[in-house]
Design goal:
The protein is an all-alpha fold. It has 61 helices and 10 strands. The C terminus is likely disordered.
C-alpha cells in the first residue's frame, strides 16, 4: 500500500466504519436467526461465527448457577482440546480468538438488538463464543457498554451471585461513581493536600474505590481481575505513596502519586480510555526508529565532541600591564568575570577564537580559554552528555541559531560546512524518519480498522442473504388460504396501528391548550393575516439573490473599515469610522429584524448561522449602549467576528471552521488533560525550588517569566514546551533545582507533547471530507449568488424600461454558453482539469462546492501547459531531423507577405542553410555546456560585489569587463536561438521568455550604469537562469507552479483568519507597545519612575538627553504591522519579545509594567492553535492532494525526480532487494581458504563490529577537563584498537587479494586506517587545524547498516534496514529540492548583500553575522532557514531615523523597511513550502519501501522462503496443495508474501483456479500472491514465465 492509495481511500474507509457500526437485523430476521434451528447450521462457518448471537430465542440470558456449571464444563473441554493441539504440535493460531466487536469497553453491536432496560447492570452470559468457555460473564452498563468480569469467586470468597459482589458491580458501573471520582481528582489540582485532613480524605476515598473494584472483579487470579488491568495499577501507586508519605518524606518522588492520580481521569470515560490505549499502541512500533535516533544522535554527538570540545570557553580577557610580575596570578585573572569583555545587553561574555575567521577581541583584550561555558555553563561540547544535549537542541530547532552563532564565533566560519553537511542532514534524517514512522503506524491502524469493517460487513451480508433465502422459502411454503389470510391480517393490523397513531397525533394537536397554540403561532409568525402578508413579503425579499449579495458586500466593507483602525488616528478619521460602524450596526440589525419577521422566531433560530448573527448583533448593540463603560470596552473585539459570516457563502472557509469544530473530541481532551497533568506535576516538583532559589537565575531576585511557582505560569510553560521551545526554561529550572530532575521532566514533556500534537494533526489530516460537510447543506454559495445576481440586475433594469428581458437574454445565449458553463459550480474528480489558459486566474478564485468533498482542481489543459513550459532546446534534442521551423506565426505571414521566402534557391537558400547551421550550434552539447559554464560563472561573480569592492579597483574593473562579456555571450545565445528556432518556437518556452527578460533587464542596467544610476540589485536576477539548465530543479519548480492555483483559495482563507487575529490585536494592543527608555543604561524606566508618555516627555523637557520615548519594532498599531507580528509569532523564535510586550502593556501611551496584563497570553495561545496549527493542516491537505493529482496524471511516477533518476531508483531498489552475493572466489590453497572462511564469516564480522562499538565508547568518555592519566589510558587503548584494525586489514588483504577493494566498506576501512596511522605521528597538527584523527573511526559504523542487511530475516534488523533504505530511495528527490534550496539561499544572500550591507549593528546583526560580504550573508541566511530568529535580522532593517543615521557617508546605516519585510517574508514562506516537500518525499518513499511495489523485487530469498514453506505443507514435493490448507500456508509465509489470518475472505477474492479434489497449483498461488505486492503499472510482460523460471531454477519440484 502506497501513501496515496491510503490517502485516496480515506473517504471510503470512513464510510465503511460508519456502515459497520450501524449493522442491524430487523425483528423478523432476528427471530428467524434465533428461533429457527435450520438457519444456524448454514452459518456455522469460520467466516460467519464471529458475528452470530448465542443460540436460543433469548440473546441476553442472565448468568445463573446453571450457566456457571455449563461454562465450567466448556472450560474443561477446551483445556483438553488445547492439550490435544499441543500434543499434535499444531499452531495455536488455529484456535478461536476473541471477537473484535465484542471487546471490553465497546458498545454492543446493533446486530444484537436493544437489550431490555431491566438487564442493564445485571450479570449476563457472555456473548462472545470465545469467552463462553473462559469462565467469564458480561454486564451491560449505560450506553450498552460491554463490561466483562471473572466468573470465579472474588478473593475466593464472593461468588458472582453474592449480594455484596452484585452491589459492588452496580456501584462500579454506575455513572455517578465515575463522576464522583472525576470531581475528586479535579479538586486535587486546587486543594493539593494543603490541609492535613485532605490527605486522609483522599486516602479513604481511593482505598474505597480500590476495594469496590477488588470485590467486583477479584484481585489477581483469573481474567479481568483487578491487577490484570494496567489502569488499576495507578490505584496501587496512589495508595502506596499516600501510605508511605505518612511515615517518610518522599520529596520529589511524591510526584508519582500526582501523575498517577491525574492519569486516572482517563479511566473515568471509556472514550478517553480507548483513545489513550490507541495512542499507546503505535509507540510500540517506534522502537526501531527510537533506537536508530539514539544511535545517530550519539554519532553526531561524538562528531561535535571531537570538533568543538572546549572551544566555547574562549573569552576575551583584558590584558593587564603587570602580567610579567611574579605576583600576577594568571588563573585568578582569567577566571574573574570582571576581566571579561561583554557585549551590551548580553549576560554572557563574548565568545572568541584565535583563527582568522573567528570572532576577534577588541583592542586591549586577548582570547583565552578560561571560565565556564555560556548560558550558565549548559551550552557546550565538553563531554558526550553536553554534546548530545546540544545536538538534541539542534534537532528540535530550539534556539539552535544561538548554538551555531557561538560555535562559529569560537571555531570559525569555515565550520559552517560541518553544520551543513553533517548536523543538518543528520537531524533532518532523524526527524523525517520519526514523522514517517508515526504516519505509517497511523495509516496501518486505520487500514486495520477498515479491513475489520469490511470483514464485518461481508459477514453481515452473508447472514442477511441466508435469512432472506429462508424467509422466501417459508413464504413459498405458505400454500393454504389460512396461512395467506394470517399474513394479510398481520399487514392490515400494522396499517390500522399506523392510522391510529396519526389520529392520536391529530387529536393531541386539536386538544392542545389555547396558550400552547398561541405560543406556537407567535413563534412561527402566524398571528394574523396582516402579519402573514408582511411575513410573505419579507420572505420574498430575503430570498432574492441581491439581498445575499448586499449582505456579503456589507460584511466585506465592514471588515475593511474595522481593519482601517490604527494608532494614532486623526480625529476626523476616527469619527468617520464611528459613523461607518453605526451604519453597519444598523444594516445588520435591520437584516436580523427582517429575517425574524420573514421566518418567525422558530424558523430563524433553527439555522445556526442565524444564531451566530443574532449574537453578534446583540453584542454590537450592547457595545454601542455601554461604550462609556471602561470595563466593557473589550466588546469591540467581537466586531472582527463578522468576517466568519462569509463562511456561509464561502465553502473553503466553511470547511476550515468545520475542521476546527471536528477537532473537539477525545484526542483534544486527552491533549488538554495531559497539559493539565504536567502543569500540576511541574508545580509540585519545582514550586518550592523557585521560591527558595529565586536569586540564582536573575541578579535582581525576580522570578523569570517562565516558571512553575503557580498553576497559570506552569500551564503556560508546559504549553510552550509542547510548542518545542523548552531550552531557556530548562536552564532556569536547572539553576534552581536538580539538573537530572529538570532534564528528565522537560524531555518527557517535550516528547509526549510532540507525539500528541502529531497524532492530533494526523487525525485532522485524515478526517473524512463528508464529516466536514455533513451539516448545513448550503446551496446558496457565493458563485451561485453572483450568477443569479448577474441575471437579476439586468432583468430588473429591462423591467423598469418596460421591455422583456427574456428576448435580450436569448440573443446572448450562444455567446455565453461556454462562460456560464464554466462559472457554474460543479464537482469534478481528482483527474479532471479546468478549461483553458484564459480561465486560469478565474479558476484560482473559484470556490469549491460547500457540499462536495475537498477537491483541488488543476487546469484542464495541463498537458498543453506542460508542453509549453518544458524547455524547447531539450525537446528538440530528441528530434531526428534538423529542419528549422518557421520563424513567425501564420498571422505574421498573412499580415507581412514579404516574410514568405523561397528556401530552395538564392538568398532564401543561404538563409535556410544559415538557420540549419545555427540550429546545429545551439543543439550541440558543447554549446549547452559552455552556456551552463557562463551562467555559473556569472552567478559566481556576484559573490565579489560586497562593500569592500570600492577598495579593490583591479577587481572592480575585472567585474565590469566580466559583466560586459557575460551580457555579450547571452545576447549572442539569444540571437542564435532566434535564428535557429524562430520567434514562434522561441517564445513558446517559459524558460526562453525568462532568459529574454533577464537579458533585457541586464541591458537596461548597463545603460543605467552608464547614465550614473545604480542597478546593482538587478544583477541578482542572473541566478534565475540556473533552473532552466538543470532538470531536477525544473521538475520541482513545475510541481510548485502546479500547486499555486490549488493553494490560492487556501492561502486566501489563511489570510482571512490572520486578518481576524490582526484586527483583534489592533483592538487589544494598539498604542500600548510604547515605553520610556534610558539610552545610557539601555534599560526601560521603572513603572514607579515613569508612568506614561507625559511624564517621559517631562523628563525630556528637563534636558535629560538619555531619555527617549520609543515603540517596539513589531507591534499592533495597525493591521499591516499586526500581520508582520503574527508572521513572526507563527514562524520565528522572536515571538517571545512580542508576547512579553503584550503581557506588560497597560493602557495607551502608558509605561509597561511587568506582567500586569498576564492573561493576554491566551490571545497568543489561541493564535498559535487556530492561526498556525489548523491553517497548516489545511495547507498540507492541499499540497498532498496536488501531488496526488500530479502523480496520478503521470501514471504513478514520482513527481520530484527526473526520468533518469527514476531509472536509477529502480536499479538501486532491485540491487538492494536482492541478497548480497559473495562474488569473491574462494582460494584453492588450503591455508588461504581457511583464512578466507575466517574473514568472511559472520562471527568475524560481529567481532569487528563489537570492536568498533568499543572504539565509539572510548571516544564518548573523552572530556575537556580530563586528567593526564585518563588521557594516557585512552591513548594506549586507541593504539590497541588501531593495531586490531591493522591486523584485520592484513588478514583481509591476504584472503581477498585484489577483490578487497571491490567492496565500498573495505575502502572506507582502508582510508580510516591510513588516516589513523598518519594521525599517530601528526596528531598535534591535525587536532590544531582540523580535529582528532580518531574521529574518522566513526565512518566504520557503516558496517552496522550492512550487518542489518545481512540479518534481513530478523524482524528488528529488517525494519531498521527498511527505514534506512526508504531514506536512501528518497535521496534523488531530496537532492533536487536541495538544489533549489541552495539556489534560493544563494540568490537571497546576494540580494541581502546588495540591499542591507550597511545596516546598523543591532540585535542579531553584528560584526560577524551581517550582510557586508557574501560569506557573512550566506551564514545569516542559513541561520534562518528553519524560520528561527529571522526577527532579529529584520529588526535593525526596520529602523528609521532617529534610530539609524542617514547623515553618515552614503548610503548611511538605514535600510528600506518595506524591502526588508518583503525579503524575509518571501524567504521564510518559500522555505516553509520546500521543507514540507522534503518531509513529504521521505514519507512517500518509506511507504513504498515498506510495501514493495515491483514484482522484480522478489529475490531468490523470497522464492526460497516460499519453497521451504511449501515443503512443510507438501512434504511429498507435489505442485498442488489442498484448498483447506491454503489459509495456514499463506499465514506461514514471511513478509512481503504473507497473508495473515483471518485470511479466508481475502483468499476467496483471489479467485484461484481449483483442480479436481479441491487442489490448487503452486504457481497459481505464487503468481497471485506476488501480484498482490506489486503495482499493476510496473509488471513485466512475461510475469508468469519469470516466476516459473525463477522458482524452478531455485528448487525444481
Amino acid at each position: 500500500m502506497s501513501f496515496f492509495d491510503f490517502w485516496s481511500r480515506t473517504k471510503e474507509r470512513a464510510a465503511l466504519l460508519r456502515r459497520a457500526n450501524q449493522l442491524r437485523l430487523n425483528p423478523s430476521q432476528l427471530n428467524l436467526l434465533l428461533g429457527n434451528s435450520e438457519v444456524r447450521p448454514l452459518l456455522q462457518d469460520e467466516r460467519m461465527v464471529s458475528l452470530l448471537p448465542p443460540v436460543g430465542m433469548e440473546v441476553f440470558r442472565c448468568f445463573t448457577a446453571v450457566s456457571k456449571e455449563v461454562v465450567q464444563q466448556r472450560h474443561e473441554a477446551e483445556v483438553k482440546e488445547r492439550k490435544a493441539w499441543k500434543h499434535q504440535k499444531a499452531s495455536e493460531k488455529n484456535l478461536r480468538k476473541p471477537a473484535a466487536h465484542l471487546e471490553t469497553g465497546k458498545s454492543l453491536p446493533f446486530i444484537y438488538g436493544v437489550p431490555p432496560p431491566q438487564l442493564l447492570n445485571t450479570p449476563l452470559e457472555d456473548l462472545d463464543p470465545f469467552y463462553q468457555s473462559q469462565k467469564t460473564f458480561v454486564v451491560l452498563s449505560k450506553g450498552n457498554i460491554i463490561n466483562r468480569f471473572s466468573a470465579d469467586s472474588s478473593c475466593y470468597l464472593l461468588s458472582p451471585f453474592n449480594p455484596l459482589r452484585t452491589l459492588a458491580i452496580k456501584t462500579l458501573l454506575h455513572p455517578f461513581f465515575s463522576t464522583f471520582i472525576l470531581l475528586a481528582i479535579l479538586s486535587f489540582g486546587v486543594l493539593r493536600f494543603n490541609f492535613p485532613v485532605v490527605k486522609y480524605v483522599y486516602m479513604a476515598l481511593f482505598m474505597f474505590e480500590a476495594l469496590v473494584k477488588v470485590v467486583a472483579r477479584g484481585f489477581c487470579v483469573g481474567r479481568f481481575t483487578f491487577l490484570r488491568d494496567p489502569w488499576n495499577w495507578l490505584d496501587i501507586i496512589i495508595i502506596s505513596t499516600l501510605l508511605v508519605s505518612q511515615f517518610v518524606d518522599l520529596g520529589k518522588f511524591a510526584v508519582l502519586m500526582t501523575i498517577s492520580l491525574l492519569l486516572k481521569i482517563f479511566t473515568c470515560s471509556q472514550g478517553l480510555k480507548k483513545t489513550v490505549e490507541a495512542l499507546v499502541q503505535p509507540v510500540k512500533r517506534l522502537d526501531c526508529v527510537i533506537i536508530l535516533t539514539v544511535f545517530c544522535l550519539s554519532i553526531l554527538a561524538i562528531i561535535g565532541l571531537q570538533f568543538f570540545m572546549g572551544i566555547l570557553k574562549n573569552k576575551c580577557v583584558i590584558w593587564s600591564m603587570n602580567t610579567n610580575t611574579t605576583e600576577f596570578d594568571f588563573h585568578n585573572h582569567t577566571t574573574s568575570p570582571e576581566n571579561y569583555y561583554y557585549i551590551p545587553g548580553h549576560p554572557d561574555p563574548l565568545v572568541c577564537g584565535n583563527q582568522s575567521d573567528t570572532e576577534r577581541c577588541p583592542d586591549g583584550f586577548n582570547c583565552v580559554k578560561a571560565g565556564s561555558n555560556p548560558n550558565f555553563g549548559y551550552t557546550s561540547y565538553d563531554s558526550f552528555f553536553w554534546s548530545l544535549m546540544s545536538l538534541f537542541r539542534l534537532m528540535m530547532h530550539d534556539f539552535w541559531e544561538g548554538l551555531m552563532q557561538l560555535t562559529l564565533r569560537a571555531a570559525g566560519k569555515s565550520y559552517l560546512i560541518v553544520f551543513l553537511l553533517v548536523f543538518f542532514p543528520g537531524c533532518f534524517f532523524l526527524l523525517s524518519l520519526i514523522l514517517a514512522v508515526v504516519v505509517m503506524t497511523r495509516a496501518e491502524q486505520e487500514e486495520a480498522q477498515g479491513a475489520e469493517a469490511i470483514q464485518r460487513e461481508e459477514e453481515f451480508g452473508r447472514i442477511v442473504e441466508v435469512l432472506k433465502r429462508r424467509e422466501e422459502e417459508a413464504s413459498s411454503r405458505a400454500e393454504t388460504p389460512e396461512q395467506q389470510d394470517s399474513l394479510q391480517k398481520k399487514k392490515s393490523v400494522a396499517g390500522i396501528r399506523a392510522t391510529k397513531q396519526e389520529h392520536v397525533k391529530e387529536a393531541e394537536e386539536h386538544h392542545r391548550p389555547l396558550c400552547c397554540t398561541c405560543t406556537d403561532a407567535f413563534l412561527k409568525g402566524d398571528c394574523c393575516g396582516c402579519w402573514r402578508w408582511l411575513k410573505q413579503q419579507s420572505h420574498t425579499f430575503i430570498m432574492n439573490p441581491f439581498f445575499d449579495l448586499v449582505i456579503i458586500i456589507c460584511i466585506i466593507v465592514s471588515t475593511i473599515f474595522t481593519a482601517m483602525e490604527h494608532y494614532p488616528m486623526m480625529e476626523e478619521f476616527s469619527e468617520t469610522l464611528v459613523i461607518a460602524h453605526l451604519v453597519f450596526h444598523g444594516i445588520f440589525a435591520a437584516e436580523m429584524i427582517i429575517k425574524l419577521v420573514a421566518m418567525g422566531l422558530h424558523g430563524y433560530f433553527q439555522v445556526r448561522w442565524h444564531i451566530f448573527d443574532f449574537i453578534l448583533v446583540i453584542i454590537s448593540l450592547l457595545q454601542l449602549g455601554l461604550a462609556d463603560v471602561e470595563s466593557l470596552s473589550l466588546l469591540r473585539i467581537f466586531l472582527p467576528f463578522r468576517v466568519f459570516r462569509l463562511a456561509r457563502w464561502w465553502p473553503m472557509l466553511h470547511m476550515f471552521l468545520k475542521i476546527v469544530w471536528a477537532s473537539v473530541g477525545n484526542l483534544t481532551l486527552v491533549l488538554f488533560i495531559t497539559v493539565f497533568m504536567f502543569s500540576v506535576a511541574g508545580m509540585q516538583l519545582f514550586q518550592s525550588d523557585y521560591k527558595a532559589n529565586v536569586c540564582r537565575p536573575s541578579y535582581d531576585c525576580q522570578l523569570p517569566r517562565w516558571h512553575m511557582e503557580d498553576f497559570f505560569h506552569s500551564f503556560i510553560l508546559v504549553f510552550r514546551v509542547f510548542c518545542g521551545q523548552c531550552l531557556e526554561s530548562l536552564w532556569d529550572c536547572m539553576k534552581v533545582s536538580n539538573d537530572g530532575v529538570c532534564v528528565t521532566f522537560f524531555i518527557i514533556v517535550l516528547i509526549v507533547g510532540k507525539l500528541l500534537i502529531l497524532h492530533l494533526f494526523l487525525n485532522l489530516l485524515f478526517i473524512n471530507d463528508q464529516l466536514v460537510d455533513s451539516e448545513d447543506k448550503t446551496t446558496n454559495t457565493l458563485q451561485s449568488t453572483m450568477k443569479q445576481t448577474r441575471t437579476w440586475i439586468p432583468k430588473s433594469i429591462w423591467t423598469l424600461w418596460g421591455k422583456n428581458y427574456a428576448d435580450q437574454d436569448h440573443k446572448g445565449d450562444t455567446k455565453k454558453d461556454n462562460k456560464e458553463e464554466y462559472l457554474a459550480l460543479s464537482s469534478v474528480s481528482s483527474d479532471q482539469l479546468t478549461l483553458d489558459d484564459n480561465h486560469t486566474n478565474m479558476a484560482a478564485w473559484e470556490a469549491p462546492v460547500a457540499m462536495a468533498e475537498i477537491e483541488f482542481r488543476t487546469p484542464e489543459n495541463a498537458q498543453e501547459k506542460e508542453t509549453q513550459h518544458c524547455d524547447v532546446i531539450q525537446k528538440l534534442k530528441d528530434e531526428t531531423h534538423l529542419e528549422p521551423e518557421d520563424c513567425c506565426c501564420n498571422r505574421c505571414h498573412v499580415c507581412c507577405p514579404f516574410l514568405e521566402i523561397d528556401t530552395s534557391q538564392g538568398t532564401g537558400r543561404v538563409w535556410s542553410n544559415f538557420r540549419r547551421a545555427c540550429l546545429c550550434i545551439v543543439q550541440h552539447k558543447f554549446f549547452e555546456g559552455f552556456i551552463v559554464f557562463i551562467i555559473l560563472l556569472s552567478c559566481a561573480a556576484l559573490v565579489f560585489e560586497d562593500i569592500y569592492l570600492e577598495h579593490r579597483p583591479v577587481l572592480q574593473r575585472v567585474l565590469k569587463m566580466a559583466d560586459l562579456v557575460f551580457t555579450f555571450v547571452f545576447l549572442v545565445e539569444m540571437l542564435l536561438k532566434w535564428v535557429a528556432f524562430g520567434f514562434k518556437k522561441y517564445f513558446t518556452s517559459f524558460w526562453c521568455w525568462l532568459d529574454f527578460l533577464i537579458l533585457n533587464v541586464t541591458l537596461f542596467s548597463l545603460m543605467g550604469n552608464m547614465l550614473g544610476y545604480t542597478s546593482q540589485p538587478l544583477r541578482a536576477l542572473r541566478t534565475l537562469r540556473v533552473p532552466s539548465r538543470f532538470k531536477g530543479m525544473r521538475v520541482v519548480l513545475k510541481v510548485l507552479a502546479v500547486m499555486l492555483p490549488s493553494m490560492f483559495s487556501v492561502l486566501l482563507v489563511i489570510l482571512v483568519i490572520w486578518l481576524f487575529f490582526s484586527m483583534i490585536g489592533v483592538n487589544l494592543f494598539a498604542g500600548k507597545f510604547s515605553y520610556c527608555y534610558n539610552d545610557t543604561s539601555e534599560e526601560l524606566f521603572s513603572f514607579y519612575v515613569v508612568k506614561n508618555k507625559s511624564e517621559c516627555f517631562s523628563l525630556m523637557d528637563l534636558n535629560f538627553s538619555e531619555v527617549n520615548w520609543k515603540t517596539w519594532t513589531f507591534n499592533f498599531d495597525n493591521v499591516g504591522m499586526s500581520f508582520l507580528s503574527l508572521l513572526i509569532m507563527g514562524t520565528s523564535s522572536g515571538w517571545m519579545d512580542i508576547m512579553y510586550a503584550a503581557v506588560d502593556s497597560r493602557q495607551v501611551e502608558d509605561q509597561p509594567r511587568y506582567e500586569i496584563n498576564m492573561y493576554m497570553y491566551l490571545y497568543f495561545i489561541c493564535f498559535i492553535i487556530i492561526g498556525c496549527f489548523f491553517t497548516l493542516n489545511l495547507f498540507i491537505r492541499v499540497i498532498i492532494d496536488t501531488i496526488h493529482q500530479q502523480r496520478h496524471k503521470f501514471g504513478g511516477k514520482h513527481v520530484f525526480v527526473t526520468d533518469q533518476q527514476q531509472k536509477y531508483l529502480r536499479t538501486i531498489k532491485k540491487r538492494f532487494s536482492e541478497k548480497l552475493n559473495n562474488t569473491v572466489p574462494r582460494p584453492q590453497n588450503c591455508c588461504l581458504a581457511w583464512l578466507f572462511d575466517l574473514v568472511t564469516g559472520l562471527y568475524f564480522e560481529i567481532f569487528m563490529v563489537v570492536v568498533i562499538f568499543f572504539n565509539m565508547v572510548v571516544l564518548m568518555v573523552e572530556t575537556d577537563d580530563q586528567s593526564v592519566e585518563k588521557s594516557h589510558v585512552l591513548y594506549w587503548i586507541y593504539l590497541i584498537l588501531v593495531a586490531i584494525f591493522l591486523v584485520e586489514f592484513i588478514l583481509k588483504i591476504i584472503a581477498l587479494r585484489q577483490h578487497y577493494f571491490r567492496n565500498g566498506l573495505h575502502i572506507v576501512d582502508f582510508v580510516v586506517l591510513t588516516l589513523s596511522i598518519i594521525g599517530l605521528f601528526l596528531a598535534d597538527i591535525l587536532e590544531k587545524y582540523f580535529c582528532s584523527p580518531s574521529l574518522f573511526s566513526v565512518m566504520r559504523l557503516g558496517r552496522l547498516f550492512a550487518l542489518c542487511g545481512a540479518f534481513h530475516h530478523i524482524r528488528f534488523a529488517r525494519r531498521i534496514w527498511m527505514l534506512i533504505m526508504g531514506f536512501v530511495m528518497s535521496l534523488p528527490a531530496l537532492f533536487n529540492i536541495g538544489l533549489l534550496f541552495f539556489l534560493i539561499v544563494y540568490t537571497f544572500s546576494i540580494i541581502g548583500m546588495f540591499n542591507f550591507a550597511y545596516v546598523k549593528n543591532e540585535m542579531m546583526i553584528d560584526d560577524m553575522f551581517n550582510f557586508k560580504t557574501f560569506g557573512n550573508s550566506i551564514i545569516s541566511m542559513t541561520m534562518i532557514t528553519t524560520s528561527s530568529g529571522w526577527a532579529g535580522l529584520l529588526s535593525p532593517i526596520m529602523n528609521i531615523s532617529p534610530d539609524c543615521d542617514l547623515r553618515l557617508p552614503d548610503p548611511g546605516n538605514c535600510a528600506n523597511p518595506t524591502v526588508g519585510i518583503v525579503f524575509f517574508s518571501s524567504y521564510i514562506l518559500l522555505f516553509c513550502l520546500l521543507v514540507i516537500q522534503l518531509f513529504i518525499v521521505v514519507i512517500l518513499e518509506l511507504f513504498n519501501t515498506a510495501s514493495p511495489e515491483d514484482a522484480e523485487m522478489l529475490s531468490d530469498d523470497h522464492l526460497q522462503m516460499f519453497y521451504e514453506t511449501w515443503r512443510k505443507f507438501v512434504p511429498s514435493g507435489s505442485q498442488v496443495i489442498l484448498y483447506s490448507e491454503l489459509a495456514d500456508f499463506c499465514d506461514g509465509l514471511q513478509d512481503p508474501l504473507r497473508i495473515p489470518k483471518p485470511n479466508t475472505i481475502k483468499l476467496t477474492h483471489l479467485n484461484l483456479p481449483l483442480f479436481p479434489g479441491d487442489q490448487i497449483s503452486c504457481l497459481d498461488v505464487l503468481r497471485t500472491i506476488t501480484t498482490q505486492v506489486r503495482s499493476p503499472e510496473t509488471g513485466c510482460k512475461h510475469f508468469d514465465m519469470f516466476l516459473k523460471l525463477c522458482f524452478l531454477k531455485l528448487k525444481p519440484l
